Structures are given as structure tokens and as C-alpha cells.
TrEMBL record:
This is tRNA pseudouridine synthase B. InterPro entries: PsdUridine_synth_cat_dom_sf, PsdUridine_synth_N, tRNA_psdUridine_synth_TruB, TruB_C. Pfam families: TruB_C_2, TruB_N. Residues 173-228 form the tRNA pseudouridylate synthase B C-terminal domain. The active site is at D39 (nucleophile). Its EC number is 5.4.99.25. Signal peptide: none annotated. Residues 24-172 form the Pseudouridine synthase II N-terminal domain.
Length: 295
């Protein structure tokens, strides 16, 4: 059984759920799940957990993501991308590349962003996109997102390509739309590609076809504990390892080295030698507790 994460290079025109089904077939394994949904028209990095990796999704650090996108000025659509209906067309020919470069600073840092109606966010248990398809628009709350960097790779008006590093939960479609509104002409996305999601990077991404054809699929997998590299690593003694394997919290004397000061709520990885056993969390009042033991 394969355990860990595949970094799949998602093609355009399929859903993230479709990719999960394709991975299941490619590796002939049932326990498969994805993290960080991509729109059907988008491409790029889609981390897919397999086997014990599905238990580790909750511990991943995907707080920062990077995208490369192409926007088109002068046309706004209801989905904020090329798949939608045109809702407005405005003049853009008075704009110059310098106008696009000039508005970058106002989109950096913490921002309030209104999630689009065509999104998977639920209201009253119903995904917004289902309401949007019926022509229903509802009130949405603005959400705080953070844009770490925004650079234009090329500008060939009315189109422009930009790379953005942003916090989880940022809608790049909405960012493009907001850029268009700031310029007074509207905009929508023509292309969107995710190049990074936390430690999952484009350079490590493989296609579904490559996965299905691989003689050694294990060689393509990102090991479970590597995906949790952001968590501190603590070594257990044999006795401590046996306890954790049985779902029991190790005692203070059952670490190879004393853990030292742990922050309240800090998560750590527990090992016996090179074998990754569990993720534990430190509680200021109750001490260490096991969150998930891996087989």
C-alpha cells in the first residue's frame, strides 16, 4: 500500500474530485483524497494524499500559495474567468503597462476580499455556485487575505500575465477582477496555474498519465513525514515508541532527548529511529496528547 502524497499536475477541464478518481484507478487503491481545490479551468499543483497520507491532511502547512495567471482587461464575466457569461464590456485602450504596474502597491499586504458567487463556499449548507447557477446572488462576508507579492511577468494589452504569492483562501479570479475595477475597465482570468501550495511545488508535479505508467510509483511519492517537515521532530526510546504504537502518550523519560519548552498548541512529530509514528500536540494544562498515530 502506498502512503504519502503525490504532487499531481492538474490539467484544465477536470475537477479536483476527478483527479482523485483518476489517482485511485492509477494506483488501484481506495484511500485517496486531495487538498486545496483547484477550479476546473485551472492547472498545476494539486497535492493528493494516498493511504495514511489522508490522515495527515489536517496537519499540512499550506498557508502560502503561488499562482501564475493571465488576465484580460475590458471584459467582466459572472464567474470572473473565461468560463462565465460576459456581464460588462468597457474601454481599456487608454491604459498603458505603467498603469498596471502602478496599482500593484495597493494590492499588497492584508486585503479584504469578497468571495465570488461561483465558489464552493457554503451558505446555509448550499455551495454558492449552485445558487449562482440559478441566478441567485446572496450577501457574502468579506474575508481577510494577504498578498505577499504580485509581479507582472509580461503585459501585452489587453492581456497581462502576473505571478502572485498569497495566503490560503485567496481567490485569484477575484484579485484579477479587483485589478480590473481599480483600473476602471473590469477584467477576468484567461488562465490560472498553481505553481506552489505550501511545500508542494511545480517542479515535483507529475501528470496522471506519468503516474499510471510508472513502473515504480513509490519513487514518485512524497513521504508522509516529509510533507509535515514544518513540525518539530522528537525521538522516542523503544519504550516510548511501543507506548505510542498502542495509542498511549509517552512519559517524560521516554524521549531520547528532553523535548524542551513546547508552546501551547504546538504540534510535533514523534519518531522511533527513522520510523514516523505519530503527530502529538502540547496542551499547556494537560501536557502532550496524541492527535494521530500512523500505521
Amino acid at each position: 500500500m502506498l502512503n504519502g502524497f503525490f504532487v499531481i499536475d492538474k490539467p484544465a477541464g477536470v475537477t479536483s474530485h476527478d483527479i482523485v478518481s483518476k489517482v485511485r484507478r492509477a494506483i488501484n487503491q481506495k484511500k485517496v483524497g486531495h487538498t486545496g481545490t483547484l477550479d476546473p479551468f485551472a492547472t498545476g499543483v494539486l497535492p493528493v494524499a494516498v493511504g495514511e497520507g489522508t490522515k495527515a491532511i489536517q496537519f499540512l502547512d499550506e498557508s502560502e500559495k503561488e499562482y501564475r495567471a493571465v488576465l484580460r482587461l475590458g471584459i467582466a464575466t459572472d464567474t470572473q474567468d473565461l468560463t462565465g457569461e460576459v456581464i460588462a464590456e468597457r474601454e481599456w485602450s487608454h491604459l498603458s503597462p505603467a498603469d498596471l504596474e502602478g496599482i500593484v502597491p495597493q494590492f499588497l499586504g492584508l486585503q479584504k476580499q469578497l468571495p465570488p458567487m461561483f465558489s464552493a463556499i457554503k451558505q446555509g449548507g448550499v455551495p454558492l455556485y449552485k445558487l449562482a447557477r440559478k441566478g441567485i446572488e446572496v450577501e457574502r462576508e468579506e474575508r481577510e487575505v494577504e498578498i505577499h507579492s504580485l509581479t507582472f511577468e509580461w503585459i501585452r494589452l489587453p492581456e497581462a500575465c502576473f505571478t502572485v504569492r498569497c495566503s490560503r483562501g485567496t481567490y485569484v479570479r477575484t484579485l484579477a477582477c479587483d485589478i480590473g475595477e481599480a483600473l476602471g475597465c473590469g477584467a477576468h482570468l484567461l488562465e490560472l496555474r498553481r505553481t506552489e501550495s505550501g511545500l508542494f511545488k511545480e517542479a515535483d508535479a507529475i501528470t496522471i498519465d506519468a503516474l499510471a505508467a510508472a513502473a515504480d510509483q513509490q519513487a514518485l511519492i512524497l513521504p508522509l513525514d516529509r510533507a509535515l517537515d514544518h513540525l518539530r521532530r522528537l525521538q522516542l526510546t523503544e519504550a516510548g515508541g511501543r507506548k505510542v504504537g498502542n495509542g498511549v502518550v509517552p512519559g517524560d523519560g521516554e524521549f531520547v532527548e528532553a523535548p524542551g519548552l513546547l508552546q501551547d498548541g504546538e504540534q510535533v512529530r514523534l519518531y522511533l529511529g527513522e520510523r514516523f509514528l505519530a503527530v502529538a500536540c502540547h496542551d499547556r494544562l494537560k501536557g502532550l496528547r496524541l492527535m494521530r498515530v500512523f500505521n
